[in-house]
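About this split. The held-out portion is used to measure sequence recovery: a designer receives only the structure tokens and must propose an amino acid at every position. Recovery is the fraction of positions where the proposal matches the reference. Here is one held-out target exactly as it appears in the evaluation file.
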């Protein structure tokens, strides 16, 4: 950690006697790092599924609920990470 602090000229920890406390910079870098690891995990999952994206948002328009209800339920069960929204109209 000292090498990282020296390389970038930042303080990640405050050292007092035998105690160590994280700095605001360290906390911000931790949040960014968590996002990076999350994106990497998602990328590996997408690659394992053959590149098929199984998350995101899908908007559906239908004339009435009877025509679309079964399809929406089945799709939602198969792809739970996809956010669905349905708009109903008369045409």
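Reference sequence for scoring:
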């Amino acid at each position: 950690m000292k090498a990282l602090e020296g390389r970038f000229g930042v303080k990640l920890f405050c050292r007092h006697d035998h105690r160590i406390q994280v700095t605001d910079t360290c906390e911000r870098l931790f949040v960014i790092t968590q996002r990076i690891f999350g994106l990497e995990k998602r990328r590996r999952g997408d690659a394992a599924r053959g590149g098929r994206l199984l998350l995101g948002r899908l908007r559906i328009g239908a004339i009435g609920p009877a025509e679309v209800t079964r399809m929406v339920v089945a799709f939602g069960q198969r792809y739970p990470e996809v956010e669905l929204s349905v708009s109903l109209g008369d045409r």
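Annotator remark: The chain has two domains: 1-51, 54-91.
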